[in-house]
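Help! Submission page says 'invalid entity' but I think these are all valid:
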Amino acid sequence: MKDGDLMVQQAIELRNVCKKRRGKTVGPLNVNLPQGYITALVGQNGSGKSTLLHMLLQLTFPEEGEIRWFEEAYRDGLPLQLRQTIAYVPEISQNEENLWTAREAAGFRRHWYPSWDQGYYEELLLKLEVPENARLGKMSKGERRKFEIAAALAAKPRLLLLDEPSSGLDPFAWKIMIETLQRYMDEHEATIVISTHIVEEVRRLADYIVLMHQGQLLGMAEKDSLFGSWSEIWVQAEGGQALEELAAELPQALELKLETPGVASFLTQQIYQYEKRIHDLGVKVIKSRSLELDEILSLWSRGHRPVLIDQKRGE
Amino acid sequence: MWIPIQINENSAEPLYHQIETQLKSLIISGTITEGTLLPSIREFAGDLKCSVITVRRVYQDLENEGLLRTRQGTGTFVSHVGDGTMAGYKQDAIRKALESAVDVGLSVHCSEDELTQLFKEIVQDKYGKQK
């Protein structure tokens, strides 16, 4: 445990949470999402990310386990006061507001969110170029997303849940969204949980990554501890015989293969531990590179859990 | 403010250490001057594509070394760098560069005399040009 961890308060805690659907179970989920940080929820379609977000809003309820919000379980339902501090951008916008313009929808939402900041809302609509007089139902997917993001932030939430917020956004709007979320985090004591498929979004925004796969939560990592955890190495290898010898000497190597005659490649974790060994074997390293975040996550979802790089101070 | 820090993704050096070393040398070398307001932790993390946990650690370490100070509500600033620190840093930087040059010499079996001769030539050449 790192120094200071004891003081960290949790925004969300899940204990053995299970949601059973016909033919599919999400869980058991065990995770803590700390206050004041951005946690990215990543995983393939159908891995259970949206179900997890729905449970955090009590749009759906788990059959087993316990969820705690800001360190309380609220077994009889989330009180209004707490709901008013949570904002949500759903994966698919709600139909109920389709006939309203952005202005009219704001009037409705303002009623439910006492901390609604109309000035901030209008500033965001302007910045994101959301059409003022169009009905929400008539907007393009991207325009509707922009409205949803602006309206969620205008409620000044303490907990912001974003389900693939950038789908449909053009690159300019995407950049504004990233910067707006960063600034919001800077100026408020907020917590963001964002489900996303966009690696660049994780790279720019996330502090923590939670990886889900087929209804299971594979783990949570501080994003930077994944940095440099896997490498791809190209070495000189004369042929099949040399390849077999290499495989015997480096049992931890994955995807060992002959790239072209004379060159073999493989994946390994913690390359700095094996560099000397490879050198001692008399194998010539041609090139190496660190795997990208998406490659690391993809290996992880195939069962190759990364050994997290120790980010602690060397004490 | 944009801080010129370059992260090497292929380095085995941990991220926070890369950032810390570079930020430190930018401050001690005077590239970022005393009183400069650094980006907020969240902003800097976004620029560097790392987490706020890493940036916070870097700011705290440099604060403990007296290179940065944080004023509640305003942000993190560059402090006064003492002349002693500056001189020590210069020596360190030169020593490191020379050590790696000598290592290259050793690796190609260059003799001590040969290396010293080369060093003298380079010094004369470079310093001569400055006059």
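Support: the input was valid. A stray whitespace character was the problem, and the output above is from the cleaned input. The interface with chain B takes residues 37, 178-179, 182-183, 185-186, 203-208, 222-224, 227-228, 231, 271-272, 288-290, 309-311, 313 of chain A (CB under 8 Å).
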